[in-house]
Design a protein that fits this description.
Strand content: under 5%
Number of helices: 2
Distance between the termini: 38 Å
Order of helices and strands: HH
């Protein structure tokens, strides 16, 4: 993440890199899973 070229590449893809602890990352992923689970359930999306 220290490479300026890599940071530019991420920005070009719309990513916003940030640092944090493994616990913070785990919490972020957990919140995302909960959020998208609700979205998929409400939209009644199913695997075909």
């Amino acid at each position: 993440m220290q490479s300026p070229d890599f940071k530019v590449r991420l920005a070009d893809e719309g990513a916003e890199p940030e640092s944090g602890s493994p616990e913070q990352f785990r919490a972020l992923i957990g919140r995302d899973i909960d959020k998208f689970r609700r979205i998929v359930t409400q939209a009644k999306v199913s695997v075909q």
